[in-house]
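Sequence design from tokenized structure. All designs in this work follow the same two-part layout: the structure record, then the generated sequence. An example of the structure record is given first.
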């Protein structure tokens, strides 16, 4: 939602700034009004546009997905006996992105409530204090006893008794121009945009531009009805005191009188000036290209996958040997943790025992190996090197790969292999009709062939091994003050959003 709002605000800004520079002073009132409406609609729908339709080639299941690689903390392996498997203890913490989303939603709700409050205020302003009302073809006139500023909203026109007796023709014609042209619906759309883009100052500034073209259009209706321009301008100046506070209302003297008087006296703009509106086309293409570039880079074969760190506590995977069969269980230190889903049960421990005289590979030592620069440096390394395999993306295959390796005495890694992998095969949801014909109504048919699935699994495992093999910056573990060889595991989760 937050990403959509940011893209929408970017679109509105790209379209609205050229409008203010090129067209706001032209006398194409109706055209400018529809252009502003188009800007709001484009800013609402362009971020939703399926950018992948602009790409060549066949579209697949993963074309609408984002590839993410989640990285757990490295885990050491220790031999021990009689240890029961336990779950990895985790608790959730709020990320910066979640805080930003909550802040955005709070702001949107506050703005929405203020808009609703304003709409309720308009309703009471129309219905309270009415002396009489006159229902006509396209609107209902509500005459008030108090000193009410004339305004209109949807099919209601509000006027005070004094204005009705002295200037009813000009005022009613003006407000009827708002009603006939359905200006209130424009204001509703604008308020919706402001709720979504409450943080965008240009969304709020657009209210001035839209109200101006509304007033210009209504003034034009008055002058075309036969009212003398000087007589009407005198009325506007006389009614210039006061302003409307109603968010959904079109007030008779809402806009700056000077701008309205100037626009009445200005000569009609040359029709060729309409060509300036063609700026919308390249701006729209720029917006689409910006979004498409972002998506295509993410899905590219050579593009970096997004790396998310689970920032997990140090997990000790104790391996017990029972009846010559090794099983793994997880034990965590009581340190703050972030959510991680490292499924380390039944790790593949296939390395043969080392003969006497060969350096022993330790599972747990006094000083465990650590990556140079800590977890931030490891995340940076992975962000620059991990690639989500294209074949796995196109087949919609995701899952977890746990890579086991040995940190040597000099800090480089050896014996890199996949200890365990759990790769999910994409499943299409079953229809109710098909589900009724099977015992398992929740399971669907696989969306990829066995061959494609096997190739995707191998690609994910190979990628995990490839990246770990690139590591060169480990501080070796130490036992009794001397560097020793230590076994480690790194869990990588390849996920499609």
């Amino acid at each position: 939602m937050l990403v959509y709002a940011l893209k929408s605000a970017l679109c509105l800004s790209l379209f609205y700034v050229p409008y203010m520079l090129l067209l706001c002073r032209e006398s194409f009132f109706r055209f400018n009004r529809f252009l502003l409406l188009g800007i709001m609609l484009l800013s609402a729908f362009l971020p939703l546009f399926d950018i992948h339709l602009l790409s060549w080639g066949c579209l697949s299941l993963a074309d609408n997905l984002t590839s993410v690689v989640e990285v757990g903390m490295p885990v050491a392996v220790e031999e021990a006996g009689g240890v029961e498997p336990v779950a990895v203890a985790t608790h959730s913490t709020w990320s910066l992105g979640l805080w930003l989303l909550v802040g955005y939603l709070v702001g949107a709700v506050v703005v929405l409530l203020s808009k609703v409050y304003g709409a309720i205020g308009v309703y009471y302003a129309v219905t309270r204090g009415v002396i009489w009302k006159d229902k006509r073809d396209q609107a209902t006139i509500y005459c008030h006893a108090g000193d009410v500023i004339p305004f209109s909203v949807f099919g209601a026109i509000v006027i005070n008794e004094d204005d009705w007796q002295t200037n009813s023709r000009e005022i009613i014609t003006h407000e009827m121009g708002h009603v006939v042209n359905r200006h209130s619906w424009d204001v509703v759309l604008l308020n919706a945009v402001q709720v979504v883009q409450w943080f965008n100052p240009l969304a709020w500034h657009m209210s001035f531009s839209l109200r101006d073209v509304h007033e210009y259009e209504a003034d034009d209706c008055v002058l075309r009805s036969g009212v003398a321009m000087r007589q009407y301008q005198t009325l506007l100046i006389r009614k210039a005191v006061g302003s409307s506070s109603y968010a959904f209302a079109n007030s008779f003297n809402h806009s700056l009188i000077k701008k309205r008087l100037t626009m009445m006296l200005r000569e009609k703009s040359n029709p060729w000036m309409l060509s300036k509106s063609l700026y919308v086309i390249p701006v729209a293409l720029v917006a689409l290209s910006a979004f498409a570039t972002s998506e295509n880079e993410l899905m590219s074969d050579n593009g970096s996958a997004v790396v998310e760190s689970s920032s997990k506590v140090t997990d000790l995977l104790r391996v017990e040997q029972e009846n010559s069969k090794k099983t793994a269980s997880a034990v965590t230190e009581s340190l703050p943790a972030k959510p991680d889903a490292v499924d380390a049960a039944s790790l593949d421990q296939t390395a043969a025992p080392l003969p006497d005289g060969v350096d022993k590979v330790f599972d747990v030592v006094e000083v465990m190996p650590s990556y140079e620069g800590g977890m931030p440096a490891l995340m940076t390394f992975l962000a620059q090197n991990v690639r989500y395999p294209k074949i796995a993306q196109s087949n919609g295959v995701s899952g977890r790969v746990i890579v086991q390796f040995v940190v040597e005495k000099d800090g480089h890694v050896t014996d890199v292999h996949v200890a365990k992998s759990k790769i999910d095969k994409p499943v299409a949801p079953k229809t109710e009709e098909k589900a009724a014909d099977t015992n398992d109504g929740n399971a669907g048919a696989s969306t990829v062939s066995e061959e494609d699935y096997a190739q995707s699994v191998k690609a994910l495992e190979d990628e995990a091994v490839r990246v770990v093999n690139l590591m060169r910056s480990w501080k070796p573990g130490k036992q009794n003050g001397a560097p020793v060889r230590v076994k480690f595991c790194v869990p990588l989760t390849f996920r499609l959003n």
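Residues 370-424+449-494 form a domain with the TolA/TonB C-terminal domain fold (CATH 3.30.2420.10). We note this feature because it recurs in several other targets discussed in the main text.
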